[in-house]
Amino acid sequence: MGVAGSGKTxxxxxxxxxxxxxxxxxxxxxxxxxxxxxAAGVPLSEEQRAPWLxxxxxxxxxxxxxGVVLACSAxxxxxxxxxxxxxxxxxxxxxxxxxxxxERLASRRHHFAGPDLLASQLATLELDHTVTTIDGSLPLxxxxxxxxxxxx
Length: 152
Fold this sequence. Notes:
Elements: H1 8-19, E1 22-25, H2 32-39, H3 46-62, E2 68-71, H4 77-84, E3 91-95, H5 98-107, H6 118-124, E4 131-135, H7 140-150
């Protein structure tokens, strides 16, 4: 989990490969309207996020037996509660400095979540005792290693 540009998809894919489980990118479950809104630099409200979180929760339910790595912003405690429901889940947040995030987002092409959303995502981010944090600016192999260790 984490804000746009933190490395969720890249790390998630590698972690899923290491764990030999499916990988799902939560971005793929957004509606076209939600993607267009975010591309225009307008963040989604909690109400707008609810159906998306429900779709992602169902993906988690569908993978209960096999496990899954899900890349998802899950910025608020409430979002994580809705996403997990009664399932046993682990949340790992990739934390990166605002400067590095801005640089990553500025160089990213063809993605709806651009630099205009960064300030609102950072302001929304709630990290609590239920979230393991990892420095997402470390070398990629070290981030994946730390994420794998956090799941043991």
